[in-house]
Amino acid sequence: MDTEAVRTFVLAAEVGQFQHAADELGVTQQAISKRIAALERELEVRLFTRTARGVELTIDGQAFLPHARSIVAGVERAITAVRPDSRALRIDVLGFRSGQAVVLHDYWRSHPETALDVVTLKAADPHVAVAAIRAGDVDASFRTVTDPAALPRDLDMVHVIDFPLELLVGPRHPLASARTLTPSQLRRHRIWVPGIAPKSEWADFYDQLATAFDLRVDGAGPNFGVEALLDTLAESADVATLVGSRDRLVWPTSYDLRRIPVVNPTIAYPQSLILPRSNPHPGLRAIIDYFRSLATLPETAWLPSWATPRRR
Amino acid sequence: MDTEAVRTFVLAAEVGQFQHAADELGVTQQAISKRIAALERELEVRLFTRTARGVELTIDGQAFLPHARSIVAGVERAITAVRPDSRALRIDVLGFRSGQAVVLHDYWRSHPETALDVVTLKAADPHVAVAAIRAGDVDASFRTVTDPAALPRDLDMVHVIDFPLELLVGPRHPLASARTLTPSQLRRHRIWVPGIAPKSEWADFYDQLATAFDLRVDGAGPNFGVEALLDTLAESADVATLVGSRDRLVWPTSYDLRRIPVVNPTIAYPQSLILPRSNPHPGLRAIIDYFRSLATLPETAWLPSWATPRRR
DNA sequence: GCCGGCCACAACGATCGGTTGGGCGTCCTT
DNA sequence: AAGGACGCCCAACCGATCGTTGTGGCCGGC
C-alpha cells in the first residue's frame, strides 16, 4: 500500500472531488483516479461512489477513512522522528527494560502528546553518549560520568533520581523468604552481576559497595543476556543478584524469582542525565522535573562517592 | 512511502539480517536491500549500519522503529476494517454529532480495544439502513421504524436509550434566561426544526409532540446545515429549536446559545438499534448494555406512541 | 590464508505511476 | 430540447521503480 495513495484518499474524501484533490496536489485528475483505483483494487472494496458532481464515500470508504487518517498521521510522526531539523525529543537509555526507560515510559503515558523517541546506544563507554549528544544525534542520555572533570564544558550532567536496589533470588536461596534485607545480611552470599565492563561506572559502584559492606560481588564472566541470568538464579541455591527497584524484568511465572528490598541502609544507584549546557531540548525540563518528583531516598541511604544525593 | 518497505524495515530490524528477512518474505536479499535503501533515500537518513554478520539499527533507525510499527499496525487495522470476512463491528448512526455517536464514542473510549467503525448512511429512509444490515454492509443501525410490522422478520429492533430534549435558544429569546422549562411554557413560541422529511420518524415525533402539548413546531424549510440553524437562532428573538441532551453541537463561543432542559414532563426521544435477529455481531451485546446502563427517564416522561419506554 | 556468510552494485525485464488525449454521463442553462 | 460545463473513466505512451540474476567486497572463523 502506498501512503501517497492513502493521503490522496483522505484528501479526496474531504473535498469530495478527485478534480479538486488533483489541483491541490498538483497532479492530473487521472492520477488521482488511478491512485484510488489501485487502493480499491488492493482492498478489493469500492471506496467511493462516483457521481456527476464528484465522489462520495461508500460505507466501506467511511469505515476506512479514520484508519487512513491514522496511517497518514503515523507516517507524519515517523518522518518528523528522523528529520534532523524537526526532530522529536530523543533520549538515550541504557536499555529498554532499565528503570530509566520504565520511568520515561510512565512520563510519556501521563504526557502522551510529547513527541518522544527512546533509543539506546549499545556501548558501555559513556564517551559514545557524550559524542552522540555533541553531534546532535540524541538530545540527552541517561548516563553517568563518575569523574565530573571528564565531561566536556559544553555538556551538563544533572542528577535526576536514585533507584533503590533489590536482591533478586530464586526459591532455593537461603534468603528467599525474607521480606526485607539489610546489607550485612548479604555478607558471605555470592552476588553475581555479570557483564560489568572493567573501570565502568558500574564496576566502580559495585567496588565501593563491596568495600563498604564487606560483600562478595562477583562481576566476572560474560553477559549472556538477562534470560541466562534469570535461568541461573532460578536454579541456584547460592547465587543472587541486585536489580534496581524500577527495572523491568520479565520472566516466565514458573521461575518463581523474588525481589527483596534492601534496607537499613537502602542502597541506591544514582541516575544522571547528560544534556547540552546551552539550548537543551525544551522538552527535557519537564522530564527532569518528573523524575525528581518521584519518591526520594531516606536520609540514611547509601550512595557511591560520586553521587550528589537528592534527599528531602 | 511504501508500507511494504516499512513492514520490511520492521522485520529486518527484528531479525537483524536482510538475508533472513528475505527468506521470511520469500524474496531475494537484494530486494530487501533495495527496499531499505529506498526508505533511507526518502527519509534522507541511514536506518541500518551494515556489518559482516547482518545489520544493526542506527540511532535514527531506533527512533523510526516504533513509528514504523505503528504504521504497520494502522495498515493492518485499515485492512481488517473493510475485509468482508474479518470486518470490525460497523454501526450506522444518524450523524457524527448525534447523541448516538457521542455515546458510542464514550463507549469506545472506555473499551478502546473494540474494533469499531462508525459510519452514516446518508438517507432519511430507514429502509436504506434495513437493506444495508440485511446485505451485511453494516452490523447495526441506530434507527427506528415506527411501525414494527414494517421490519423484516430476520431483523430485530431493540430500544436502547431515551434522550431528553432541550430547548436551544439565542440570548435575545424571551425564554433565554430560564433554568428549566415545562412544555406548557413553550406554547406560542415558535419551534423550528428544519430538514424534517415528511412521514419520517421525526415528522411523526414532532406531530405527536405538537398535539400533546399544543405546540407550534415548524418543520418546514430545507435544512441548510447545522451552522445555518445556529446562525439563525443566535440572531433571532423568537425562534428556538429542540436538541437531544447528548447531541454535540459545536458553535463559536461568540454565539452565546443556551440549552435549557425541558421538564415536567421530560420530553424524550427514544433511540433504537436495528440488528440481525440471528447471529448479530458479538460486540453489539456490550454496546447495547452500555447504552441501557446510562441514566434512565423519570416515570412521568413523555414519549411518542411507538416507544417502549425503559424506566426504573 | 582460505572459506563462508552477508551486503552492495550492475544489468535486465516486468510492472507501476505519471501524462496526454478522448469519450461518456449528468446537470444546468438557454 | 440542445448545448456547454464539469467530473469521471479508459487507452496509449513513457520514464521510474521493483523485482530478478550475477558479481564483487568485506569481515569473522577455522
Core attributes:
homodimer, 312 residues, alpha/beta, Arc Repressor Mutant, subunit A, D-Maltodextrin-Binding Protein, domain 2, 3 domains, DNA-binding, DNA-binding transcription factor activity (chains A, B), LysR_subst-bd (chains A, B), DNA binding (chains A, B)
Alpha-beta content class of chain A: alpha/beta
Count the DSSP helices of chain A.
9
Total discrete domains of chain A: 3
Instruction: Report how far the terminal alpha carbons of chain A are from each other.
Output: 56 Å
Describe this structure in words.
- Two copies of one chain form a homodimer.
- By secondary structure, chain A is an alpha/beta fold.
- The first copy, chain A, folds into three domains: 3-82, Winged helix-like DNA-binding domain superfamily/Winged helix DNA-binding domain (Arc Repressor Mutant, subunit A, Orthogonal Bundle), CATH 1.10.10.10; 87-161 and 269-300, D-Maltodextrin-Binding Protein, domain 2 (3-Layer(aba) Sandwich); 163-267, 3-Layer(aba) Sandwich (D-Maltodextrin-Binding Protein, domain 2).
- Helix content of chain A is 37%, strand content 19%.
- Chain A contains nine helices and eleven strands.
- In chain A, strands 6, 7, 8, 9, 10 and 11 form a six-stranded mixed beta sheet that branches. A three-stranded parallel beta sheet of chain A has the order 4-3-5, with helices on one face. In chain A, strands 1-2 form a two-stranded antiparallel ribbon.
- In chain A, strand 7, helix 7 (201-213) and strand 8 (216-218) form a beta-alpha-beta unit.
- The longest helix of chain A is centred in the N-terminal third of the chain and has 24 residues, at 59-82.
- Chain A binds chain B through residues 1-4, 6, 43-45, 56, 59-60, 62-64, 66-68, 70-71, 74-75, 77-79, 81-84, 87-88, 90, 117, 119-122, 132, 137-138, and chain B through 1-4, 6, 43-45, 56, 59-60, 62-64, 66-68, 70-71, 74-75, 77-79, 81-84, 87-88, 90, 117, 119-122, 132, 137-138.
- Chain B binds a DNA duplex (30 and 30 nucleotides) through helix 3.
- Chains A, B: It comes from Nonomuraea rhodomycinica.
- Chains A, B: One of its GO terms (cellular component) is protein-DNA complex.
- Chains A, B: Residues 1-58 form the HTH lysR-type domain.
